Amino acid sequence: MNAISKLIARTPGRGLVLLAIFFAVLAALPPFLDRYLLSVMFLIFWFATVSQAWNVMMGFCGQLSLGHALYVGLGGYVAALLYVGFGVPVIVGVFPAMLVAVAFGAAIGFLSFRFGIEGVYFALLTIAFAEVTRIGFDNWPLMGGAAGLFIPVRAGGGGEWWNLRGGPVLFYYVGLLLMAIALVVCSLLRFSRLGYAWLAVREDPEAARALGINVFRAKMSAIMISSAMTAVAGSVYAFYQNNLFPSQAFDISRSIELILAPIVGGLGTLIGPILGAFILTPLGQGLIAATEAIVGKAVPGANLVFYGIALMAIIWFAPAGVWPWLKKKLAIPEERS
Known about the structure:
Blueprint (H helix, E strand, L loop, with lengths): L1 H9 L2 H16 L6 H26 L8 H18 L3 H24 L6 H19 L10 E2 L17 H23 L2 H11 L1 H6 L4 H27 L1 E2 L1 H4 L2 H14 L6 H24 L6 H16 L4 H8 L8
Antiparallel strand pairs: 1-2
Helix pairs in contact: 3-7, 3-10, 3-12, 3-13, 4-5, 4-10, 5-10, 7-10, 8-10, 12-13, 12-14, 13-14
């Protein structure tokens, strides 16, 4: 509670009011939305959550991960396997899912940071881990292999919220809760001692080391926290889809999708990843629907083409991202340190 009170004290009053209105409106929306729009809103919340998790790595600590789908897939597979094979509720299974993701993140971090693998080479290592894991799960019968792992939906079981066995309204509120929790967690981290250490490492690792900051420990904490947050979101997404395929769960295109929102919204900011998800996801879903209506079938990668165009436009007109530009327009002051 003390940490939260300090966070509120640091946040400008106008920003708190706008944020409260924003979440209040979202909480009241479901009665006015159909099933399709509820699903789109869930995807927005989900991408906002994983974008905030990735933002911890890149935006706060300056470590470029291009294989973050690894933690999405691991979280989903572990929670799904525990539920399908042993009947473990999702609200319990999410903790082992987080531990497995953290173990993989720690392995990647140790290999990279202990032996000085940085920059583009670190990014390539994250891709390599995701690809190796994808191949492994593709040939692992226990996980369903290439045929996929399917999560059963019990007839008449509708209201099992603890197992995420419900309709679009349930997932809407679960997604909204995840986004809100991720925002609070990232806010607390950003203004903590660890958060300031991350910023120092991001700006100049050598200078941070000279100031007495344990750079290795700071980077390890960033990748472990980010992987844990991503695994939680991956667990929820698996139960939303009711199936898991290695070629989708660990695919690099998934990693690219989840890093675009913070880049478009504003890398290293708290609101940027959320704003980026609200911009890209509905436009991407609309483009998919439009191409299906025109062509008569789904066009693979159509949304990624759009994301690329949107990213180029943002880089050209607002290099720092949409949120820093919008914050100036709304005259919202910077968060106080």
